[in-house]
Amino acid sequence: MATQNVETNKKKKKKKGKVKWSDLYTFSCLRPPPPVNRSDFGHPGFSRVVFCNDSGMHKTKPYKYPTNDVSTTKYNVVTFLPKSLFEQFRRVANLYFLLVAVLSVTSLAPFSPLSLIAPLVFVVGISMLKEGVEDWHRFLQDLEVNSRKVKVHIGNGKFVDRSWKVLRVGDVVKVIKNEYFPSDLLLLSSSYEDGVCYVETMNLDGETNLKIKRCLECTLIFDNEQKFDKFKATIRCEDPNSSLYTFVANLEFGDEDQLDSSYPLSPSQLLLRDSKLQNTDYVYGVVIFTGRDTKVVRNSMNSPSKRSRVERKMDHVIYVLFFMLLLISLITSIGSVLYTDQPQTTKEWWYLRLLDDTDASFDPDKPLISGFLQFLRALILYGYLIPISLYVSIEVVKFLQAMLINNDLHLFDEMSGKSVESRTSNLNEELGQVEMILSDKTGTLTCNQMEFRKCSIEGISYGGDVNEIVRAASQRMNIDIESYRFNLDGADSTPRDSIEMVEISSDQNKIDLNAEKGIQNLGVMAIKGFNFRDDRLMNKMWLHGSNVWDMIMFFRVMALCHTGIPVENGEETSSHKLKYEAESPEEVTFLIAAQEFGFQFCRRTQSSMFVKEIDPSGFEVEREYKLLNLLEFSSSRKRMSVIVRDEVGQIFLFCKGADNIIFDRLGDGGRTYQHATTIHLANYAEDGLRTMVFAYRKIEDSEYEKWSSTFTKAKVTIGHEREELLENVSETIEKDLVLLGAVAVDDKLQDGVAECIDKLAQAGLKIWLLTGDKKETAVNIGFACSLLRHDMKQFHLSLSRDAESKNQLKAMKDDILNQIEASYQVTVNEKTKDDPLALVVDGKALEIALTNDIRDRFLQLAVSCASVICCRVSPKQKALITRLVKRYTGKMTLAIGDGANDVGMIQEADIGIGISGMEGMQAVMASDFSMPQFRFLERLLIVHGHWCYKRISKMILYFVYKNIVFGLTLFYYELYSKFSGDVLYDGWYMVMFNLFLTSLPVISLGVLEQDVSSDICLQFPALYQQGQKGIFFSWKRIIGWMGNGILTSLAIFILNVYILSLSAFRQGGEVVDISHLGVITYTAVVWTVNCQIALIITHFTWIQHFFIWGSILCWYIFLLFYGALPPKYSHREFGLLVEAVGPAPMYWIVVLFVVVISLLPYFIYMVIQRSFYPMDDHVIQEMKYGRKIVVDDETWLREKQSSRKATHIGFSARVDAKILHLKDQLHKKRMFIIKSITSSPIRRSITISTLENRD
What we know:
Blueprint: H1 2-18, H2 21-24, E1 48-52, H3 80-89, H4 92-104, H5 113-146, E2 149-155, E3 158-163, E4 172-176, E5 184-190, E6 196-200, H6 202-205, E7 210-214, E8 233-237, E9 249-252, E10 262-265, E11 270-271, E12 276-278, E13 282-289, H7 295-298, H8 309-340, H9 345-348, H10 367-381, H11 388-406, E14 412-413, E15 418-419, E16 421-422, E17 436-439, E18 446-457, E19 460-462, H12 468-477, E20 480-486, E21 499-505, H13 510-522, H14 548-560, E22 565-568, E23 578-581, H15 585-596, E24 600-604, E25 608-614, E26 620-631, E27 639-645, E28 651-657, H16 659-663, H17 674-686, E29 690-699, H18 701-715, H19 722-733, E30 738-749, H20 753-762, E31 766-770, H21 775-784, E32 793-797, H22 801-806, H23 809-828, E33 837-841, H24 843-849, H25 855-864, E34 867-870, H26 875-889, E35 893-897, H27 903-908, E36 911-915, H28 922-925, E37 929-931, H29 936-976, H30 987-997, H31 999-1008, H32 1014-1019, H33 1025-1028, H34 1035-1061, H35 1074-1096, H36 1102-1124, H37 1127-1130, H38 1136-1141, H39 1145-1172, H40 1176-1185, H41 1194-1202, H42 1211-1238, H43 1241-1254
Parallel strand pairs: 17-31, 17-35, 31-34, 32-33, 33-34, 35-36, 36-37
Antiparallel strand pairs: 1-8, 2-3, 2-4, 4-13, 5-11, 5-13, 6-7, 6-12, 8-9, 9-10, 14-15, 16-37, 18-19, 18-30, 20-21, 22-23, 24-25, 25-26, 26-27, 27-28, 28-29, 29-30
Helix pairs in contact: 3-5, 4-5, 5-11, 8-10, 8-29, 11-29, 11-31, 12-42, 14-15, 18-19, 20-29, 23-25, 25-26, 29-31, 29-34, 29-35, 31-36, 34-35, 34-39, 35-36, 35-39
């Protein structure tokens, strides 16, 4: 039995391979390549020579080409040290401390060199280590791609598995079905006899339709591995370039006597790296371009070095602090000169002139030189105003934030086993400031699956289940809505006049019950690609309709008008159901639906198609249809037709296509259902479904014979006019069609996409859709994910036929500019400026709109629209749009995509996110963050983005505050000691302050702080706008915290000096000296800054408490052990805590008093702000944590509603618009009913009889 099954499978595969698609297809996909001018080869632009099956020739110059490994890393072994050092010292603070470290080895330094050099080395080293670790992860992902296996010919007809990275130009490879192409290949042969193969280029251009590639006839003979033993050929082709759709080359191939035989090549023979082999068992190809020479890599950009806006603004804060440093250093220098140069200095300060054991940088006889040296000394002394540990603390915090993001269970996708991953932690806070999202469609918003949802046959809509928008609107209106047919004339519903309306009833459970009933009636498990519920069509119920013939013809169009191939369904062999493979997923969906309705396309030969169908009597019969012609779908035709002859001998043309195209070709007798179908199409489109119209015509034998001869002549024509001739001939047969109906398929969105977009819109983000798909598909997805709605004014920017036919740049520019100007006038018009507006742009129009002299006007229009959809966009255009939007608006941009065609866009945006889905890892490797599905963007931005922005902002402001507090006390002592140059604190106190005593609390602030919980962030998306407005890191806040630091430092120093100077410090009458004053002031600073961070934190955990109070405890422990060291090491701090300050009550009282007074201004400010000028998060905190209001209380719900930003896109906006629409419909229906009743004869007769009775 097993042997028989194997043989059967082999026979099926053989039959499949014998179908010669080249004899069926008509238009450009398989036209012969144009002849190439051979004189071009060998000159610049056409200098590449490939020796097929002889890669050894490409190991040495002049034919040595790059290897096939691809790298997305920023560094390598050689460049890591110089490039990473450059990145570190691009930060002004690090550059300053490098200068200070150099000066520290001179006699000018007030501290030991080690205390200044060690922190710099530590800070820079940690940052470089972090960069290295992140780049190592990129290297591992590159290694994964470069280590993929492919079969390579090694000689004697043997193919072995080798890694992608070892491929060389000239290698012959064998690629198996569903594998990616490892490099740009020339197709030599395939599993089909005529050398055709199907290629999925979604990773390159975003299109889901399969592309057909065909090899040259001269290479068809190489259809098995043994024949490659003696294969030799030479390819002369164009140099590497980024154009995905062009390829100019010649293949020189033949016997030894015919080596000069030359064959022109075209893009039809080129298989691009990262595209995927589909519906073809295998192909053989020869490597032409490798590694960085491949077209997909040429379309990508070098990994940019991104810095967050907060970090760039932090540089300006450092500039301000540096200016303050220069100012106080200058004051110190001038003060030193003035005091030293006074006449009384010689008498009163005679000891300054003693030369023994004096500071070499001070000479009272040369006050100006001494003053300059004092200036340099002050730059080092007051350097603690510039927080050296700020950068390394931020690096640590961002790394830990990234770990929290990576380990968030809510960001884990169980289906794929993947979670959100932060590939670089430099941009965490940027997630909280995004204002513009530029998104790919295929694989990003959609999941590359089609489902058959609805259809309209004979003017009757089937599968009309209530969509989510209507269901949500009904819940908000506290009513129930179900679909039904309503006749405008008030008579019984007929197929001709029926349209889909809504009925409003009071039965709350009707929809749910009907939905459950529909599922039960299906009686089967869910079928992939078929999500249709309607008892009127299922289980042969359509046979009881009034016009069975039209029903049968509708299903025949579905079962015959396609390019699909049936394959065995290994999963459900007992059910006799087949699986299908076709050029597009829509065709597969139609074939599955036809099978479910009883019309199973079962096999195909070169000239026939076989369908098991239900005849009018209800029995299943297998019918053969002779395939006469196949007029395939193209972007210009927007339709597909097949001409078949049935078993009776009748000839039919079955056609499917876009509604406007089919309607224009209907005959006078074929428009019976056009009105009703048009209304159904509008409803389907509003639901975000992709629609297609079915039609047919019967053709007389004589008409067909005449047309066929003309068509054959056009088909064999060689030259550029071939396509035009074929188009014109096709037009003559695709006419006088009879409309049958329409179908609607769902390009299925990923789970949670609509809800995610709705929440992002409420948070104030604008979303642009950039896709390589056609306009109709993009618009349907726009409706499905609620970027568009039915009452939205849409501006369609496209080239007019006149401008396009002229093919003159000026005419096309004028045409686009006129459209832009007209549309923009609508946006500024007082009557329409508040209306919801959307802009839809196709690829050609976009190319013109992005030229230098039009782009500003285009962007002005685009930014003023609520939603923007760009269609037929190339990878380069995606990157260009992202760059222009970023520059023009100045807003934070985020780009998200899943394919290699999105790499440029991802790298160009402020934040790039790659979807780690099914389509390779190119987008992920180029991204800053990766996620398994689009829906995780909601939590990543609204929760983690909000938290990270606020944490980093608070952290930097606190850093500035504590360093000003600490650094200015040194300056005040300099003033107090008349610019003596003496230092208030011990050198190790200075090192300990930033590295140990205040570092852990600030790190805990940056990692664990939460103004509100994650659930509340999602309930109140308007909180996200705090980041968009830059509230928490504005110059107002920065200056405020600087002022707070100055005020606190003044309070600490003045209170300490004047309290301790007026009385004895200890019971024995001892007064304080510099060591006592220094340690008491330092203690007050440590207590104050740590208590200040406790006031800032709104979300406490045991970790924060441990770090804050533990840091204060560490100060006392350090002071104890440092004072216990011998005087040689501890100097004047020997025994200070145990013998001097510890036993003195004054020490503890002064510290407590100074800390309370120093914190009082901020505490008062906080009380006033929360009481009289509260922010959104303050209100929510008081409502939840103050326990004034219970969650889900009316006030809480009202606050939630008011927190939603008014938006024109998103699920909620569509529901609001739908409610208005339904209310308007309800009002019209009530008025119609009232009018009908009041004008009815019965009503009039009752009224007359009542009046007569009164008389």
